[in-house]
Amino acid sequence: MSGASPIYGHNGWLYILENTALGLVKIGATINSPHGRLLDINRMWLGEKGLCQICNSWRLLADKRRMPPHILSGKTCRGSNHPPLHIDTKHAEQEVANLNNELGQGLLSKSPTVNKINGLKKRIEFFKTFKAAGEWTLFATWKIADAYYHEETVHSKLENFKCDLAPFGEVFKCSPEHARQVVIGAQSSTTPT
Predict the structure, then answer these.
(1) Which residue of 10, 14, 23, 111 is 20 to 30 Å from 178, comparing CA positions?
(2) Number of domains within the chain
(3) Domain finish residue from 113, 129, 145
(4) What is the pTM assigned to this prediction?
(5) Which of 83, 101, 129 is the last residue before a domain boundary?
C-alpha cells in the first residue's frame, strides 16, 4: 500500500456507484453517508458543481454558470466569478499562457510551475471533449472497519479496468457485479497493518 493514512482504522462505508449509460462504476469510501457522496458525485457529473479553471477545486456554482468567490492561498482565487471548466476553458488557457510567460522571465520556480501548467493543459483537453451521460446510482454499500484501506486494495485489484471518462477519480469500466465481487474478495483477504 502507498503509505499510511490518518483515516485508516476508522469505520466507514465502502460504496459502488453505477452509471448504466456509460457502463462505469465508481468505488469509494466515506465516513459520511454514501447517499451524500452519491449526491455530490451527481452534482459534479451534471454540472451543478464546477471545477475552477485556476485552483482545480470543486464548488457549487453561484448561478449555474459561474464559480462562486473562493479563497486560494489566502487570496480570492482568480477563477472566482468565471465559468467552470465544463462550460468554458478560456480562463484556464490564459492562465497557462501567463504561467509560461512568467516562467520564461524567471519569475516562478520551474518544477511546481511546470506541474501546474501540465495539470491545467490536461484538464483543459479533458473538458473540451467531456460530455456527461446518464446519472450515477448507488449499487452497493458496506459499513466496515478500515473502509479506506479496503478501498485502496480494491482500486489496486481493478487497476486494469481504470477509466478516464469521468472528471473525478476512482472510476472503472467493468460491471457493477464484477466490482462487487472484487470488494467482497478484498474484505475477506486483507487485513490493514
Answers:
(1) 10
(2) 2
(3) 129
(4) 0.82
(5) 129
